[in-house]
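From the pipeline queue, job 12 of 40. The input is one protein chain; the requested action is below.

Action: predict structure.
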Amino acid sequence: MSVFKNLAAKQFWMGMFVIFIVSAGLRFWGLSRFNVLVFDEVYYAIFANDYLTHTPFFNAHPPLSQYLIAIGIWFGKYLPFGKDITNNLTGSEISTFSYRWFNAFTGSFIPLVVGAVAYQLHPKRSYALIAALFAAADGLFLVESRYALNNIYLVLFGLLGQLCVLIALRKPDRRRWFWLAFGGVWFGASAAIKWNGLWFLLGIYLLWIGAWIIRWRSKNRESANLEPLAETPLANFTQFNILHIIFNLGIIPILVYSVSWIPHLILNPSPNFFQMQKEILVYHQGVGNGPEIHPYCANWYTWPLMIRPLAYFYHNTAEVKKVVSDIPAQVGNTPLIYDVHAMGNPILWWLSTAAILLVLVVAIQRLLNINHPYAKSALMPSTWIALYLVANYAANLLPWARVTRCVFLYHYMGASVFSSLALAWIVDRWLQHEKKEFRDLGWATIGLILLAFGFWMPIYLGLPLSPAAYQWRMWFPSWI
């Protein structure tokens, strides 16, 4: 039988500890590599330093991520390490490590939070461990954690909000208020990174509305399976009343978002808060779309198949002899390519896309049979888990269909978490199946994902590659 069948608590915590240590190690290893501003560091690292130097500026996104990067820059001055490579590209002479380390530290916790969400969905240690492992093996999350960018904060805060709501579903009324309010704080913080951070909250709204529709359509309480379930708290969504939603998941996120602007407005009193929201909206509406705007624009429907990832940094020493950060220009007579590619783990992403589609089919089939006299299991825990995954995936993906500006693969990060959770759920079921063929399939899936992560690791970390080795990793012309 699978070693995951009866995973002991000690084994589980050891596994989670190893995942965290490896995730942190990969994020911090060579963090000062490329002593330049990589991709959108030309905005966020500079804006963060502007707060520290009290330099007025305009930003087309809410300010919270820049505050966090600024904290990293300030705190980095007092660290006993990471000061050997510096530049003045942000407007001040600071170390490259100082404007990146806080992202690396924060991103290291993403696998743990994903594992915690999985455990709240279905309290099985094996499912939580596999979900955390898949999150740690996602290349895009690794890349985003190694530079002064903002998407890692958006996803982390959105997931923490979701985690608090899932915990609240298991709590009695008084403690439920606390956890929902705490969740509202995280949702507000996610929106204070970028507006699309609210789509994690949208997923909760969809589930709450869906639970009430299911209850209304069900002929009786037993068929609706709305009694508290030990296996999953999701059937308890109808225990949230309208006050829970309005105050904890409405007013609190708005307050947190509003308060987050105070330091920015002290430095930049004009435009004021309301004018600033309008300025942000107008700015994004004015951004065009297509390769003439940016070569890596990628329509939202291409993201699940990872058709157009981004090159955050590219340096071919055969074309430019001088390389940054004293990295060797060649090995022998072979020129080197340094590439940081913002792309997911291809095997993980493609299998996750198939998994979420399968889960969608299961959810639809079960819901169509809610009132069928022989479908007593139509709303068993597995159905609620499927609904949770599909609702949150849709909430984080489908709103992009209405966005007309140039969008990028990293905008899929929120949705990809839930497709990865779907794959982890399926793989966990395979590993505990009675038939050896299914257990072998589960292990093979994990093995392929980890092998793929290792294979594409050089372009996640910006390690030197020969031109041939680089081409081996660019499977499709659209990836380059």
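Job complete. Residues 346-368 form the longest helix (23 residues).
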